[in-house]
Amino acid sequence: MGGTKGYRSYRGRGSKGKAALAAVLVLVILAALGFLWAQEYIVYDENGQAHFTPPWQAQETPPVPEEDPQEDQNVEIIVQEPEKPEELAAFSAAAAPLTQAAWQEAWTGATVMSAPAYNAAAVTLKDGTGHIYFAAAGAEAGSVTTAEDTAEALTEVTESSFHSIARMSCFLDPIAAKADVENMGLKNTGGYIYYDGNDLNWLDPSKPAARQYLCGLAQEIAALGFDEILLTDVGYPTTGPLDKIDYNGADRAESIRAFLEELKTALAEYEVELSIELPAEVLTSGRDNTAGLVLADIAPLVDRICAAATADQIPALEAAVTAASETTDFVAELAAYGPDVTGSCLILPEQS
C-alpha cells in the first residue's frame, strides 16, 4: 500500500505540468495566427518604415481601369521635324572645285572675321561659265571640273555641323547652250545662238529640255546630302541686243514659274530646301519683265530669297519678301559683316 501512495503523488504533479504546457502552445499558435493576419495590414511609407493599418482604417484601393486594346491602335505618333535655323549666318567658299584645303581655308577665314557664330556654309557646284564642280552624271561633256579630293571635301561639308548650301547657276550656261542649241539654247532672231552683253550664252527657259537638264543636276546635288540649293542666274538675259532674242513665243514669267514648279516636284523626294538669288531691284519693284521675274510668283515657291544688299537696305528688302510670301525668308548677301546687320546673311568671298 505504501508504494501505491507514492506513485499517485507523482502522477498528480505531471498532470498540472501538461496543462500549463498546453496553454503555452495555444498562446503561441494564437500569436502566430495573429502575426500572419496582421501582415495583411502592414504598409510601408516612402522611407521604408512599416506601419500597421487595421482593417477599419484601411482605404480601399481603387480598381485599375482595364486598357482598351482599341485605344492602342488609335495612338497618334508625332515625329518632331528638325527645325531649320531661325536666322542664317553663312560663309561662302570661292567658286572653284572644292578641295579639303580650300574648305579648311574658307572655314578658318570665316572664324577670324568679325561676325556672328556661323551656322551655315555655301559652296558653288555650278557657276555662270557652265562649269560643274562635282562628278555630275548628267552633265554636258566638258562641263565637269573637279579636284582629286573634291568628293571628300564635299562630304566634309555635308557631314559638318553647318547648314550646307550648294550654289547652282541656272540659265546662264554657255557650255550646255552651245552643246544643244536646238533643244536647250537661247537663240537670236536669225536662228543662231544668242550672245549677251558679256558675250555669253544662255539656256532658253521656255524649252522643256533646258528645264529638265537643270532639274536633273539639282537632283544630283540634293543626293549629295546638301541641306539647301541656292539658285542663281534664274531668268532671261538683261544685257546685250535684247531686241534680237528669239523668245520662242513664250510668256517669260510663265516660263520661269514653270521651271520652279518643275524643280520643286523633282526635289520632292529629297529633304532639301530651295532658295533663289534675285536682284534687289526685283524685290523693291516686284518684277523685272525683261528677265521674266515676278516676285509674287517666285516667293511662294522657295524657302528663301537672297539679294546683294547693304545693311541699310535690309529692312526694306525683308519687308518686300514677307509681303510676297509670309513663309519665305530673306537673306542679305554681304561683302562683309558689320554690327548694323540684321536678320539672315550670307558673307560672299572676296572674289566670287
Describe the protein's architecture and organization.
It is a single chain. The chain is built from ten helices and twelve strands. The chain has an eight-stranded parallel beta barrel with strand order 3-4-5-6-7-10-11-12. Strands 1-2 form a two-stranded antiparallel ribbon. The chain starts with a helix and ends in a 5-residue tail after the last strand. The chain is an alpha/beta fold. The N terminus is likely disordered. It is elongated and about 140 Å long. α6 packs parallel to α7.
List the helices and strands and how they pair.
Blueprint: H1 2-39, E1 42-44, E2 50-52, H2 69-73, E3 89-92, H3 100-111, E4 120-126, H4 150-158, E5 163-169, H5 174-179, H6 208-223, E6 228-232, H7 252-266, E7 273-277, H8 280-285, E8 287-288, E9 293-294, H9 295-298, E10 304-308, H10 314-324, E11 329-334, E12 344-347
Parallel strand pairs: 3-4, 3-12, 4-5, 5-6, 6-7, 7-10, 10-11, 11-12
Antiparallel strand pairs: 1-2, 8-9
Properties at a glance:
352 residues; alpha/beta; eight-stranded parallel β-barrel; elongated
Give the beta-strand count.
12
Question: Major sheet, described briefly?
Answer: 8 strands, parallel, barrel
Measure the end-to-end span. Answer: 140 Å
The best one-word shape is elongated
The SSE string, one letter per element, is: HEEHEHEHEHHEHEHEEHEHEE
Compute the number of helices. Answer: 10
By secondary-structure content and strand pairing, the structural class works out as alpha/beta
Roughly what fraction of the amino acids lie in strands?
15-25%
Average pLDDT across residues? Answer: 85
In the sheet with the most strands, the strands line up as 3-4-5-6-7-10-11-12
Unreliable stretches: 1-13, 77-82
Radius of gyration: 41 Å
Share of residues in helices: 25-40%
